[in-house]
Design goal:
14 strands, Spore Coat Polysaccharide Biosynthesis Protein SpsA, Chain A, alpha/beta, single chain
């Protein structure tokens, strides 16, 4: 089958994601338009390579295997080999809702001044309070994940990556915020409001959950910070 050049390159880093990767890819297959799916296996030790091998029977899937270097390095690897005019991201344990790509392409066409969109989450949690994560920008208190820059929601014009890549320092777990903050020094980034990305916060312990245990609820003056715009879907 002769393939057209992809308009959108979708990058999925995965480490030990054998249970959810198929679901993520299926949500991409439901999208309209011309895309490629670059799946970067970041040194998985479970059955992820077998899942990727099966997915790669689709010629739109580009499998990459690397040593375990972390999510930012995996993203940068995918960016390096991508060919689309736009670059999007899809975490291996999340999903696109059916109009994710088409809605973003329409927004990019309507707003040629915008180089990066972020946001538009439908959040799945086990408990309503799970939607709250540390407010890294403030340095204390908590914020709804819906108001954060979630890396999987980024939809970016290729030219941005001629100047910026993700920080590969594994001590920085807020790579998404760090990336967009740097991008905004040169390009226009804007929040995308339609909820077209399904974000799962019910998949067990994570670095975010561990950080929450000792995260300060107030600053040194005693001022609290809690932005609790909770509209999550509880499973």
């Amino acid at each position: 089958m002769e393939l057209s050049e992809p308009l959108v390159s979708v990058i999925t880093p995965v480490f030990n994601g054998e249970l959810t990767l198929q679901r993520a890819h299926d949500s991409l297959k439901a999208q309209s338009g011309c895309w490629q799916h670059i799946i970067v296996d970041d040194g998985s030790t479970d059955g992820t390579p077998n899942v990727i091998r099966d997915l790669a029977t689709d010629p739109r899937v580009i499998p990459v295997r690397t040593e375990n270097r972390g999510i930012s390095a995996a993203h940068n690897t995918g960016i390096q080999i991508s060919t689309g005019d736009f670059i999007a991201f899809l975490d291996a344990d999340d999903e696109y809702l059916p109009d994710h790509i088409s809605a973003h392409l329409a927004a990019m066409a309507e707003h040629p001044e915008v180089d990066l969109f972020w946001g538009g989450l439908e959040v799945i949690v086990n408990h309503p309070e799970d939607i709250l994560v540390p407010d890294v920008a403030a340095g204390f208190g908590f914020i709804s994940i819906e108001d954060c820059i979630a890396q999987g929601t980024l939809f970016v014009r290729r030219r941005v990556f001629d100047h910026f890549r993700f920080n590969e320092d594994r001590a920085i777990w807020w790579q998404d915020l760090d990336f967009v903050t740097r991008v905004q020094t040169r390009f226009v980034a804007r929040r995308f409001d339609p909820r077209t990305y399904r974000y799962y916060r019910n998949s067990g312990s994570s670095a975010v959950d561990k950080l929450k245990e000792n995260w300060p609820t107030c600053d040194q003056t005693g001022e609290s910070s809690s932005r609790t715009h909770i509209t999550a879907v509880v499973q």
